[in-house]
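re the bet — no i am not wrong, look at it urself. input seq straight from the record:
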Amino acid sequence: MDGEPVLGVASAPALGERYEATRGAGALCNGRAIHVSQVASVHEALISSTGMHSLLGTPWVDAFVSLAGDASRSRGFGDFWGHMLVARGSAEAMIEPQLRTWDWAAVKVIVEEAGGRMTQLDGSPVADRQSVLSTNGLLHDRIVARFRAKN
């Protein structure tokens, strides 16, 4: 579909969890439907990231520090796991300063089919070797605005 991924599968064998989604069919974890959270306030949100170290020296470090300070909680759950926490409603946002296409393509379908959104930190479409922001959708524009203002 115009270069957009249409199928996503991500497995966490040690946890006994498999996430899957197909465009237009919703997202599942171990065969059960999953959905993003309905948290609409940054002050109530759990913000996940690859950790502070990965953001140091990037144009986004100040925006991240401000966002994490305003959030209810922030945790480092790197790679696909943070995005799956967003998809299943256990976190409201996942921030990564850089990802390869093969790292975000499958999780993009899962997050979006669970009701969330995925873009770069500035709100532009995801792309190879660029930043990635997954959210529950309700907080997406507000988080993007924070990163645009600090960049």
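see?? The first helix runs from residue 52 to 55. told u. also The CA atoms of residues 29 and 43 lie 27 Å apart. so pay up
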